[in-house]
Amino acid sequence: DVTEIEEKEVQAKQEEQIMKEQELSNLLHEKRYLKALGLAISLDRPHTVLMVVKAILKEADGRKHLEENIVRLRKDQKEAVLTFLVTWNTNSRNCHEAQAVIETLLKHEAPDSLLQYSGIKSAVESLLPYT
């Protein structure tokens, strides 16, 4: 009977998830936004990434800090943020944050580099009507 083993694995995953949530909360409280962005992206939490972006933009020189953090993300993390912001851009409450991230990506990534992103074509097609 493997039921007990499976239950322990599920419980371990839940505990790990709770620990990551606490770590994320601590990072936001400490204003360590780059790590918070990375953790939220790794947890595949678009809404949490949006909350981190909003928190950055509320700071003094928010746009500058947002650029600094977005530029330092890995390519796969930028791809994830790009897929998240397609959804954010469709909502008028979140479109300004989405546009700020798009602006940063367009400023700091070469067009050839952007074309290498997975899902870039569908992302651009989805962004155009709302932008």
Question: Could you walk me through the main structural features you see in this protein, from its secondary elements to its overall organization?
Answer:
The chain has 8 helices and no strands. It is globular, with a radius of gyration of 17 Å. The protein is mainly alpha-helical and 131 residues long. The protein has helices at 3-29, 33-42, 46-58, 62-71, 75-89, 95-108, 111-115, 120-127. The N and C termini lie far apart (56 Å). Residues 21-131 form the U3 small nucleolar RNA-associated protein 13 C-terminal domain. It is found in: Nucleus, Nucleolus. Pfam families: Utp13 (PF08625). GO terms for molecular function: U3 snoRNA binding.
Structure characteristics:
globular; 8 helices; mainly alpha; single chain
Short description:
The chain is about 80% helix and about 0% strand. The chain has about 130 residues and is mainly alpha-helical.
Form type: globular
What is the β-strand count?
0
Q: How many separate domains make up the residues? A: 1
Low-confidence stretches: none
Query: What number is the mean pLDDT?
Result: 91
Q: How many angstroms does the end-to-end distance come to?
A: 56 Å
Structural class: mainly alpha
From the alpha carbons, calculate the radius of gyration and give it in angstroms.
17 Å
Helix/strand order, N-terminal first: HHHHHHHH
Instruction: Classify the helix fraction into a percent range.
Output: over 70%
Largest sheet: number of strands, sense, barrel closure: none
Strand percentage: under 5%
Subcellular location: Nucleus, Nucleolus
Organism: Fregata magnificens (Magnificent frigatebird)
Pfam family, one: Utp13
Domain U3 small nucleolar RNA-associated protein 13 C-terminal: 21-131
